[in-house]
Design a protein that fits this description.
Elements lengths: L5 E9 L2 H13 L5 E3 L6 E11 H14 L6 E11 L7 E7 L4 H15 L12 E7 L8 H5 L6 E7 L1 E10 L2 E11 L3
Helix pairs in contact: 2-3
Length: 190
């Protein structure tokens, strides 16, 4: 009997190199303790976290994404500002903001969410809030004055990028940190 393999997966947009470097240099300049910063190579914009899924579910998701992603045209987003969830007084997740003129990113994410829900995958409970996680608070050490430390970054423009590909990503959780790799990539219409 063969054991069913599970894959930890998510659907994402990778960040282009220039924007990635701008964010990475800003992260390295921050003097905030107790935060596990996302490494530059792992910076991405999650559209939907799938969790641990079977090989059959990977196939089902692949079929759905190969059908619906090309329905959408390429579009531009910007990365601007730094903030925190749930708020700056009690940060748990530190993020870079996403600007989405015309809400095209939201429309793409809605289509993915709705189609996968119709196919039997769970719907995300929280409303999609476009952001890119850049750090996770591990301990409150060093968070004194967090709001003041990021005040000058609230309007920082990290750059714009064209979104032309969506990826089904695999996440391997290793002691040195997560390793992400694309299982499959889907091109938007040009």
């Amino acid at each position: 009997m063969r054991l069913a393999m599970k894959v930890r997966a998510f659907i994402a947009i990778n960040i282009d190199e220039t924007v990635r470097e701008n964010i990475s240099s800003t992260i390295s300049a921050l003097t905030i303790g107790g935060v596990k910063w996302v490494s530059a190579k792992n910076l991405h914009l999650t559209l939907k976290f799938m969790g641990n899924i079977s090989e059959d579910e990977v196939g089902k998701i692949t079929e759905i994404l190969s059908r619906i992603v090309p329905e959408h045209g390429c579009f531009e987003i910007g990365l601007k500002g730094i903030g925190a969830f749930p708020n700056e007084r009690r940060p748990k997740v530190i993020w870079a903001g996403i600007t989405d003129p015309g809400a095209v990113l939201n429309k793409l994410q809605d289509r993915i969410e709705d189609t996968l829900t119709d196919a039997g995958f769970g719907r995300e409970e929280r409303k999609f809030s476009p952001h890119m996680t850049i750090g996770r608070v591990r301990t409150p050490d060093g968070l004194t004055g967090f709001s003041l430390k990021i005040q000058h970054l609230k309007d920082k423009n990290f750059g714009n990028m064209v979104v032309n590909t969506v990826h089904l990503m695999k996440s391997e959780l290793l002691p040195a940190g997560p390793v992400y790799s694309a299982l499959k990539s889907y091109k938007l219409k040009t």
